[in-house]
Amino acid sequence: MSSVSVREALPRDTPRMLELTRNVWDGSDYVPSSWETWLQDAQGELWVAELDGRVVGLQHAALQPDASVWLEGIRVDEEVQGRGIGSVLLRHAVDWSRKMGVRAIRLSTYSENQASNAMAERQGLRLVGTFSAMTARADNSASGWPSQTRLAMPWESSEILQFLEHSGWQPFSGCYSEGWTAYVLSRDRLRLLLSMHAVLLAGDAEIEAVAIASSAIKRSAIRLGLLTGSSDGCQSLCRRLRSQASELGLREVRATLELDRELQQVVLDEGFAIGDGCMLLRELRLDE
Predict the structure, then answer these.
(1) pLDDT tens figures, 20-32
(2) How far apart are CA 237 and CA 243, in angstroms?
(3) Could you give the CA distance from residue 140 to residue 253 in angstroms, rounded to a whole number?
(4) Which residues constitute the domain of residue 196?
(5) Are 87 and 119 in contact (CB under 8 A)?
(6) Which phi and psi angles does 180 have, rounded to 5°?
(7) pLDDT confidence of residue 165
(8) Band of pLDDT at residue 211, cut at 50, 70 and 90
(9) Distance from C-alpha of 284 to C-alpha of 127, rounded to nearest angstrom
(10) N or C: which end of the chain has fewer CB within 10 A?
(11) Over the range 215-252, which residues count as b (16 or more CB within 10 Å of their CB) and which as e?
(12) Tell me, what's the pLDDT at 170?
């Protein structure tokens, strides 16, 4: 096989990117809508792989606040899949990350994509978290939001982090999701989320449950990326989010959550349907 080279992506690669992503997820790939942002990302890198002068793959690397790299948008031309091009892109990202001095590389794979999972495992990216994809229709049947739920305030960051450390959530991956991207929930990240009004609490005198959710207006949904706490508290937060989606004129709540069996059943009982497969969070530590 001819050698594969990797270079920085350029605006002239846009038509080829559209060809590579045309059939991904039945034509609903997120890469085209992110492409221009990635091209202008001064903190990350966007690469394409070339074979015999033709672009046959692409990949984006984003620097995250916790000194890690998030890899996304790995795409390979269907005609040359199985020829190691994805592995070449991944090794290039690992080499670049080492030069940048980052502590870890993370990416997500779809549980049913055997090729992607095998490639990630060969490159040393171990499984650290499993997130279920779930959806619930907006619900306008309830009159108002559950009284024991509220928006978290910026000065509550320490109390929230302390709650998370003892809620049973923290021993998992330590990340929350924004769609199919996972972020470490550091103190600085939590403060950012609080400033964006993206953290909800259940409980009166004390915190009983925490949710991280934001409105994705373009996708007509509220996006739920973390839910943890007591069954009653999580139940109330699910009800609030479905009601809130209705009030905002959105169609549904889309959740990508790391849940144990008990909490998953609570979410299912509140009208959420679980999708096929899971988001697998993978990590390669570079500081060990």
Answers:
(1) 999 988 888 999 9
(2) 10
(3) 13
(4) 133-283
(5) yes
(6) -105, 20
(7) 84
(8) very high
(9) 9
(10) C
(11) beeeeebbbbbbbbbbeebbbbbbbbbbbbbbeeebeb
(12) 47
Find the mean pLDDT for residues 114-135.
Answer: 93
Per-residue confidence band for 174, with pLDDT thresholds at 50, 70 and 90: confident
Here the tokens at position 115 are 């090729």
Tallying the residues shown for the chain, one arrives at 288
Residues 93 and 164 occupy one common structural domain: no
Q: DSSP per residue over 193-237, as a string?
A: HHHTT-EEEE-SSS--EEEEEEEEGGGTEEEEEEEEE-HHHHHHH
> What is the reported pLDDT for 168?
67
Residue 177: which of 259, 245, 61 has the closest Cα? Answer: 259
Give residues with Cβ within 8 angstroms of 160, minimum separation 6.
152, 190, 199, 201, 207, 210
Q: What percent of the chain has pLDDT over 90?
A: 75
Which are the contacts of 217, defined by CB distance < 8 A and separation ≥ 6?
250
Q: Band of the pLDDT at 66, cuts 50, 70, 90?
A: confident
Q: How many domains does the chain have?
A: 2
Q: What is the pTM of this model?
A: 0.89
Phi/psi of residue 174, nearest 5 degrees: 80, 10
Query: Are the beta carbons of 102 and 286 closer than 8 angstroms?
Result: yes
Are 61 and 149 contained in the same domain?
no
Specify if 233 maps to a domain. yes
Side chain identity at 219, as an amino acid letter?
R
Neighbours of 267 (CB within 10 A): 23
- For residue 255, give Cα distances in angstroms to 136, 156, 215, 247, 259: 8, 24, 12, 18, 11
